[in-house]
Amino acid sequence: MLVLRAEQMRILARHALVDRVMLHAREVAPAVCASLTPAHLRSVAEYCLSKCHHYGISREYDILRYLNLMLVFGFTFDQDQPWASAALKVPNPKARMEILMDHALRQIPIAEGAVHES
Length: 118
Fold this sequence. Notes:
Elements: H1 6-28, H2 30-34, H3 38-55, H4 60-73, H5 77-80, H6 82-87, H7 93-117
Helix pairs in contact: 1-3, 1-4, 3-4
């Protein structure tokens, strides 16, 4: 009979979450992921989870949205984009992701407009 302790269960849950984050990345950004080795993609997933932990983002849905932003705006968008760093400083941890997404969605027309103007 297999008996798992709490720490073992936590480790297994973390590995499963990393796998789901990697799968999500492959589904939403296949071109980006095609250029990454499996080990590099795993490190991207781990990096995403560590950033989410740092910012108090804990729901899987929100973690995957944060990953989407990393894939669109760059892996260090939270430091590189003033709108992102401001949103991530909001005192209410539950509101951070909503505010971050609102700011990110406002950036898309700007980026598209820049492309269409050239």
